[in-house]
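Propose amino acids for all 136 sites.
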């Protein structure tokens, strides 16, 4: 029986699923859009929305919970041919992404299906994006 067994296995062990979820959400917060498969995007969307809701509080305990759930990966950018540290994923989440959604009750992400399939296994490719992206 499968009572109270939620979530997708995605042909991975539990540790691999946890690492994939953390890395995909960290990339989503860093770049604000990620191309992935439909199943992975549906699995990750709830985790990303919980973290954004947590970041809207902006308190120190909320930041510590986000670091524990996500890990605090550094963000690097290239300047003059050198890689320069621009901050961390949790720092961007709490300073930029969280305040952007203060007046929004939920639904911070969107999934847009792409017309092409993944080479190899034919998986449906999608774009996982943050709604109301920052204007560059």
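Proposal:
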């Amino acid at each position: 029986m499968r009572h109270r067994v939620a979530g997708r296995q995605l042909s991975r062990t539990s540790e691999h699923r946890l690492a994939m979820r953390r890395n995909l959400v960290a990339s989503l917060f860093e770049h604000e859009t990620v191309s992935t498969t439909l199943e992975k995007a549906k699995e990750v969307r709830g985790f990303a929305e919980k973290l954004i809701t947590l970041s809207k509080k902006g308190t120190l305990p909320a930041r510590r919970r986000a670091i524990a759930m996500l890990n605090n990966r550094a963000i690097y950018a290239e300047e003059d041919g050198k890689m320069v540290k621009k901050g961390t994923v949790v720092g961007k989440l709490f300073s930029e992404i969280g305040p952007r959604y203060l007046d929004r009750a939920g639904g911070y992400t969107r999934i847009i299906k792409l017309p092409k399939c993944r080479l190899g296994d034919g998986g449906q490719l999608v774009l996982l994006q943050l709604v109301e992206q920052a204007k560059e």
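The helical segments are 14-31, 38-57, 60-70, 89-100. The CA atoms of residues 113 and 126 lie 4 Å apart.
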